Amino acid sequence: MPDTDSSYVHPKCYANTRGGCSTTISGEHYISHALIRLYTFDDPGVRIQPTPNYRIPVGIQPRRFVANVLCTAHNNGLSDADGAALAFATFLRSIALRYMNGAGTWGEPDEVEVSGDDFQRWVLKLLITHAAADVFTERNGERVTTLVSDEAIDLLLDRAGWPSTWGLGVTGDLSNAHLSFDPFTRIETVTSDWWSAAPLIKHDPKLLFGGVVDLAGVSFTLCLFNQSEALLHDDEINPLHRVTQRPSSLSWVLNGVPKTVRFRWSDPWEHVPVTFTMQR
Ligand SMILES: [Zn+2]
């Protein structure tokens, strides 16, 4: 964890709002290195070609897909967040590879437990890293610079509790076309199309307000504001319509056999299970 006695503020570290920085900047991965390794079969010769907004014109080794926006101390303090995302993706991906969209086997009931707190922080970290490195783009392809609030940093570093109306969510209504809940029927989900990140931005001034992050075929919303009203608006452009906040579990059930991710939460808010029944 960061040395909280330190008052050092590294000017390039986005988490420097209350000091605690080390003097060295680390390369913070845009998307967890362990996840890239998982999805590239840990092939040491693999190269990735980021989309143009990352300003990396050539294919690179996964370890170099980084932004210099976080000091070493704060980066090291966030490794549990990466671990939660890795556990989630590893579980769903292994099922998808066995199931092969119906050509393989679904197998026995299975479950994994993941810290919801850490997973929520991983989603926030991914969004903040992209914001701090100015790599988000608007619909016209222009890069957009967004501010990151001090509150967002306090939540990321676990210095503050999440308000009940803020935070992580998943789709609670399959008619919401913005949010995916399908880890198993598209082969791209286990090979090339396994993550994405899009911000929610508040304007004047432009502030990172949350976002939508996909991992392993599942969309997660994250709100740094009271989302109560947004959950009700059935406006077509609203990704938050009928989102279920902070689920206690996500289950996919085929022929009565469930595969379940259980989320462990330390906050005092209500957590409900979300189940998707699959059809062959
Ligand atoms: Zn720092």
Please, could you describe this protein's structure?
By secondary structure, the protein is of the alpha+beta class. It has one domain (31-64, 78-278). It is 20% helix and 24% strand. It has five helices and eleven strands. The chain has helices spanning 33-39, 72-76, 79-99, 116-132, 150-156; strands at residues 25-29, 66-71, 110-115, 167-171, 195-202, 207-215, 218-223, 243-245, 249-254, 257-264, 273-278. A five-stranded antiparallel sheet has the order 5-6-7-4-8, with helices on one face. It is globular, with a radius of gyration of 19 Å. 39% of the residues are buried. The mean pLDDT is 93. Zinc ion (ZN) binds at residues 10, 13, 15-16, 21, 71, 73-74. Residues 10, 13, 15-16, 21, 71, 73-74 line the site of zinc ion. Keywords: Plasmid.
The biggest beta sheet reads: 5 strands, antiparallel
**Spatial strand arrangement across the major sheet:** 5-6-7-4-8
- End-to-end Cα distance: 46 Å
Low-confidence stretches: none
Number of strands: 11
The count of helical stretches stands at 5
Descriptive terms for the model:
4-stranded mixed beta sheet, alpha+beta, 11 strands, binds zinc ion, 24% strand, globular, 280 residues, 5-stranded antiparallel beta sheet
Write the layout of secondary structure elements.
Elements: E1 25-29, H1 33-39, E2 66-71, H2 72-76, H3 79-99, E3 110-115, H4 116-132, H5 150-156, E4 167-171, E5 195-202, E6 207-215, E7 218-223, E8 243-245, E9 249-254, E10 257-264, E11 273-278
Parallel strand pairs: 3-10, 9-11
Antiparallel strand pairs: 1-2, 4-7, 4-8, 5-6, 6-7, 9-10
